[in-house]
Amino acid sequence: MARDLLRELKTPALATLLGRGDLTEHQAYDGFARALPHETWLARQSGLAVNGDSSPAAARNAMSAFDLPADDGGWFILQPVHLHIARDHLVLTDTQQLQLSEEDARSLFDIVQPLFAETGQTLLYGDAHTWFLRADELQALQTSTPSAACGHNIDIWMPKGEKARDWRRLQNEVQMHWHDHPTNEAREMRGLKPVNSVWLWGGTSNNNAAPANKFEETFSLSSGRNPLMLAGLRHRAVSSAAELLATHPQHGLLTLDSLIAPSMAGDWSEWLMRLQAMEEIWFAPLLEAIRNNQLDQFSITLSNNIALSTITSSKSSLRKFWRKASLSRLAP
User: Fold this and answer.
1) For residues 185 and 218, is the Cβ–Cβ distance under 8 A?
2) Which top-rank group of organisms is this from (predicted)?
3) Pair 218, 297 in one domain
């Protein structure tokens, strides 16, 4: 559908930035990678340990964003999730669709915290969507981010390794405690999906937590749901390019994640509306900022589930009139 979507877009500023800019980075990723391309890229900007066989080591740094103490040992991010039954397998639902309130999350957290304590593991609460588990004996597990596993048969994305059975056993106990629980029954009465499992990822040991932000300033118009947005990149919230430019950024990173939810849901009408809004709020003003010397250079990093590209624009690249304004770089 990509080319059909591009024909519907009326985004001349974005087309100019992409068509006349220089391709400065392009990477193809394995379709079965345990993190999506943008997650791996963000982790590297944060100085997190990235191992292609497992999800980025985000837990310990994400804990600091919640001012939670991280004792020595192996920490994981643990997220409450909804698994739905397909014809012959289980599928992970996008966590952004869960609509989990603090009240419901606290209720479910309090039910399972003693289960982990019985096995000598520590479970800490960050927010409704982000909990943290210390489980030293599970440090060697290979895990996947929820975004990478979303929409797929979870069997190939579940934690793998010597202690995988131990984790599955504990995960099953959590599922049994939440099955038909009043909190989930009340959610279903309100038309919401029950929270029926947990997802383990982001394992961090003492050796691989090394925050080293590559950017002097980081800004975000973000849902803030992905812990990788918190792990090492402390964002200042901004709502428009005008607000961003007023800070006179020297070497900064702006993250915009509003396209992720509609793309994962396959809601292409909403995806088009959101990208159209980004043209007015971000791309047109930033293009003008390059033309009037407010910005020396502006790079756009784009990704889908199997590739990532960076296109860099400057005043000199905009003078390359022989390059046509084009959105073709948005297509796979």
Assistant:
1) no
2) Bacteria
3) yes
Domain assignment of residue 128, yes or no: yes
Mean pLDDT split into 10-residue runs, the chain, 332 residues: 90 96 91 90 85 90 87 93 87 88 97 95 95 95 94 92 95 95 95 96 75 64 64 74 89 87 89 96 96 94 92 95 93 72
Q: Are residues 267 and 184 in the same domain?
A: no
Tell me the three state secondary structure of residue 269: helix
- Provide the residue range defining the domain that includes 19: 2-33+211-330
Considering all CA atoms of the chain, what is the largest pairwise distance in Å, rounded to the nearest integer?
68
DSSP 8-class letter at 142: B
Collect all residues with Cβ–Cβ distance below 8 Å to 64 and sequence separation of at least 6: 70, 211
**Residues 239 and 174 reside in one and the same domain:** no
Q: Identify the pLDDT of residue 19.
A: 96
What does the alpha-carbon distance between residue 169 and residue 174 come to, in Å, rounded to a whole number? 9
Tokens standing for residue 61: 């740094």
19 and 162 share one domain? no
The pLDDT of residue 221? 63
The 3 state secondary structure assigned to the chain is CHHHHHHHCCCHHHHHHHHHCEEEEEEECCCCCCCCHHHHHHHHHCCCCCCCCCCCCCHHHHHHHCCCCCCCCCEEEEEEECEEECCCCEEECCHHHCCCCHHHHHHHHHHHHHHHHHCCCEEEEEECCEEEEECHHHCCCECCCHHHHCCCEHHHCCCECCCHHHHHHHHHHHHHHHCCCHHHHHHHHCCCCCCCEEEEEEEECCCCCCCCCCCCEEEEECCCCCHHHCCCCCCEECCCHHHHHCCCCCCEEEEECCCHHHHHHCCHHHHHHHHHHHHHHHHHHHHHHHHCCCCCEEEEEEECCCEEEEEEEEHHHHCCCCCCCCCHHHCC
Domain end among 204, 233, 257: 204
Determine, yes or no, domain membership for 242. Answer: yes
Domain assignment of residue 45, yes or no: no
Q: What is the pTM of this model?
A: 0.89
Q: Looking at the 3D structure of the chain, how many domains does it have? A: 2
